[in-house]
Amino acid sequence: MTLREVYPNAPLASVSFELRHPESDTLTAPQRSLYKELIRKYLPVMRTQQSTVQTLEFTPAGPVPRVSTEEVPKYFDRESTISASLLKASTIVETSQYSGWERFYEIVAAVCLARHEVVAFDGVERIGLRYVDEIRVGGTEAPDWGEYLNASLLGPQMEHGIDLDLRQWQGTASYGPSEGRSLVLRYTSGEGLVIDPDAELRRKSPSFPGPFFLLDIDSFWMPAHGTPEFSETLLTSQCEMLHAPIREMFEQLITDRLRNEVLRK
Description:
The chain is an alpha+beta fold. It is 22% helix and 34% strand. It has a nine-stranded antiparallel β-sheet. The protein is globular and about 65 Å long.
């Protein structure tokens, strides 16, 4: 395993994990209580929420929109910095205060293994990791992002014919699939707030309106054939494989100036 520097001022705004599986019934009250006991060490606080799902049903008369609601048990740590949601077709772990891959995966594994013990997954349809970085360098004016980021993120550069400054741009880059594994990078410049300051999960430090650059890395795996059985071995191997390129991509997309002047402060 390659040891990576932990930046004191890391720009991570959120990290999330999703295990998508064939739909199952919502956990009963006794099952929720049992689940809570199994993960009490990590997520001792349970709250129930309503989740709204919008779908299209195709009929002879054409597509008809359908809206359904689902009661979702959600479990939190006492500081409201990490949560686990148990939906009918997916299990999701999210954090606003990422303390490193080893700790995050420890909680992911505990959440999934406990869910499988209470009501077994019928299989695995998708496993994904998503890292959202909100890069800010200070000041009220948009900086020269070329000093802080790889040139591939800087948008189209016009030398002639446009007498206006490029102020905002966005892009998407997709890699794969290969053996079911894909990676999607989304990026954009912007101004304001990326994440709702009143969101459920509390951030380590408040985010203030101003210029930012967003890096959104989504690394995921979908089985090429069939629906494989869930196992701890499958979960671990796929998560390690999906996590490996995320940090490497981030490091290649930033410059030493960002590391030294912002991330190491």
